[in-house]
Each structure stands twice: as C-alpha cells, then as structure tokens.
Design a protein that fits this description.
The chain has one helix at 50-58; strands at residues 2-18, 25-35, 41-47, 63-75, 78-90. It has 1 helix and 5 strands; from the N terminus they run E-E-E-H-E-E. The radius of gyration is 29 Å and the shape is globular. The two termini are 49 Å apart. It is mainly beta. The protein has a domain at 1-48. The longest helix is centred in the middle third of the chain and has 9 residues, at 50-58.
C-alpha cells in the first residue's frame, strides 16, 4: 500500500536492542505522517531498517510517498493496526513546479468551416472522394 502526497512531520521515537533468539541487533523508529486535505489526517509509520531510518530522518518536513505493509496485532484482547514502511520517495509538490500557460486558440474563421451540402449524410465525401 502507499500513502501519497504526505508530509513527514516528525520522528516520534527510536528503539534498538539485541534479539533474544537470534542475537542480532535490531532497530525501529516511528514517524508521524500528516496527509493534507480538507480534513487533515495523521498516521504513525514504523520503520525497521537502519538505511530507511536515515532516509526518513533526512526528509523530515518534506513531501513524501511512503510504501508500507499493514498488519493488526493483538494485545489484551484488542487489535491495533501497525503500518510498517518498506519504501520512501520524496516528491515535488504542484506548488513548486513551474506552470506554463497556453494562449487560447483564435476564433475559427469562416474558411475553416465545412461547406453545407444538399447530399444525404451517407453520400457525403471528403476531399479524396471517400465517403464518410
């Protein structure tokens, strides 16, 4: 899944440790994403990879697209959704991109209008003599 057109607001917290079973070092950080619109929405995103955490840190306050997986975890008989990010891309907003204006076409001239014909529609032809 993706959250598009989001603003990476801030880093909430970062945790790290050593896995009990694997003995490997792990790291996790949480970020608050704010999605602009008529009603502002926020989502907490969890990041579990160090290189991705560095990319998130570099983009705090920027517009981003976040790719994530969603999973529900149970705690004390209640379920909570967790959004785990696996991809991140910065993008330029519409406000920052240059816009070009195109002048409207001039009014059509009488010479470009099709001449009226007394022939029925099925007998009309174009300049090549083909019926249309």
């Amino acid at each position: 899944m993706e959250i598009k057109g989001c603003i990476l607001v801030r880093k909430l917290e970062q945790r790290d440790g050593i896995g009990q079973r694997s003995g490997l070092r792990w790291v996790a950080a949480e970020y608050l994403i704010e999605m602009p619109g008529q009603y502002v929405r926020r989502a907490r995103i969890t990041v579990n990879k160090e290189d991705l955490i560095r990319r998130f840190d570099a983009l705090v306050g920027k517009y981003v697209n976040v790719s994530f997986d969603i999973n529900a975890n149970e705690s004390n008989g209640r379920y909570f959704n967790e959004l785990k990010a696996w991809g991140l891309m910065e993008y330029v907003t519409e406000h920052n991109t240059p816009t070009t204006t195109v002048a409207p076409d001039p009014a059509p001239e009488a010479a470009t209008a099709e001449p009226q014909s007394d022939l029925p529609f099925d007998q009309k032809t174009d300049d090549d003599g083909l019926a249309f």
